[in-house]
Design brief:
The complex is a heterodimer of chains A (90) and B (218). Chain A has 90 residues and is mainly alpha-helical. Chain A has one domain. Chain A contains three helices and two strands; from the N terminus they run H-E-E-H-H. In chain A, helix 1 packs antiparallel against helix 2 and helix 2 crosses helix 3. With 218 residues, chain B is of the alpha/beta class. In chain B, 42% of the residues lie in helices and 20% in strands. Chain B has eight helices and nine strands. In chain B, strands 2-1-3-6-7-9 form a six-stranded mixed beta sheet, with helices on both faces. In chain B, strands 4-5 form a two-stranded antiparallel sheet. In chain B, helix 5 links the parallel strand 6 and strand 7. In chain B, helix 2 runs parallel beside helix 6. The longest helix of chain B is centred in the last third of the chain and has 19 residues. The N and C termini of chain B lie close together (8 Å). The relative contact order of chain B is 0.15. Classes of the chains: A mainly alpha (90), B alpha/beta (218). At the A-B interface, strand 1 and helix 3 of A face strand 8, helix 7 and helix 8 of B.
């Protein structure tokens, strides 16, 4: 791989990371004011979660990774893999 | 062999307070099934009491609620109740369910791998998500969002108390999480329930079992 290819790949990865950051941030920002989010040992406001995501902290990376797992399972239809999906919660 | 449950449920922050209250259905069910119940609630969830209760009462089911890490489970004021250095000894012969973050990743393996520690261990290999409704903070059992997270995780100890195997208890809980997730995304759900659905699904993804999946309390 020559230098140009490496730069192109790096740019592409950075763009993808940026896209994921924005995607997950948008999901978090959409949360209602009435919801209190506990993740790990403490609670976070929407703004704190989004700040961590945008600044690329370990917490932010962990949130992005977990949200991407959810999106992957949605895309692959795994969320519908249940024997009796008719018995929805009342 | 007498049926016995040891439960730890500190209550010194809002998350723990919710877990504390949602343990009540477990205690009620254990009473119905005539379990001996050792309840380390609130500020009783400390190391000295935990060690003492384990050695004196030899509980068959231990249900931890609290904060945790890969190597430790915490009680009141984040005091370490058990860690990877003493988990084999303290959990010997027990079925364990840990409702806290990350503990399923490392301690779950350590405490079951030698065959001399816990019989089985159910926990979470990543951080546990919990979404609460601020407007119901004073009434955790009536929280219309938290109930999906805590009713479904409660199914692990409830199923074990009812005599199900570890594998069955895990499956009932995970199936309930998926049903709840689907409900929360349906038109019957509130906006807040819909927004919280994805976080519940993550708890399902990270719920793990170590040890003997066929084990049961009786």
């Amino acid at each position: 791989m020559n230098g140009d290819d490496k730069n192109t790949k790096k740019n592409s990865e950075e763009k993808q990371e940026e896209y994921f950051r924005e995607l997950v941030s948008a999901r978090i920002e959409a949360l209602s004011d009435d919801l209190e989010v506990f993740f790990g040992d403490q609670n976070y406001t929407r703004e704190e979660l989004v700040k961590n995501i945008r600044e690329g902290t370990e917490l932010g990376k962990e949130i992005i990774e977990s949200q991407l797992m959810l999106l992957r399972d949605m895309a692959e239809g795994k969320i519908y893999e249940i024997e009796d999906s008719t018995q929805l919660h009342a | 062999m007498p049926k016995s449950l040891l439960i730890t449920r500190p209550d010194d922050d809002p998350l723990l307070n919710a877990l504390f209250h949602w343990c009540k259905p477990i205690i009620l069910e254990a009473q119905k099934k005539q379990f001996s119940i050792y309840d380390l609630s609130g500020n009783k969830a400390i190391k000295t009491k935990f060690d003492s209760y384990v050695s004196r009462n030899n509980p068959k089911l231990i249900f931890f609620n609290g904060h945790g890490s890969k190597d430790s489970i915490h009680g009141y004021n984040k005091e370490v109740l058990i860690d990877s250095t003493d988990c084999i000894q303290l959990l010997r012969g027990t079925i364990v369910y840990v409702r806290s973050c990350n503990v399923g990743a490392s301690m779950g393996q350590i405490s079951t791998k030698s065959g001399g520690g816990a019989v089985a261990f159910i926990g979470y290999s990543a951080k546990f998500w919990l979404i609460l409704s601020k407007s119901r903070n004073t009434l955790p059992l009536l929280d219309p969002v938290a109930k999906f997270f805590l009713e479904t995780s409660n199914l692990v100890p409830l199923s074990l108390i009812k005599g199900n195997s570890v594998e069955e208890a895990d499956k009932k809980s995970r199936d309930a999480m998926l049903r709840s997730y689907l409900f929360m995304n349906s038109s019957k759900a509130t906006t807040e329930q819909r927004q919280a659905a994805g976080f519940l699904y993550l708890n399902r993804l990270f719920q793990v079992v170590h040890g003997d999946k066929t084990a049961r309390l009786y």
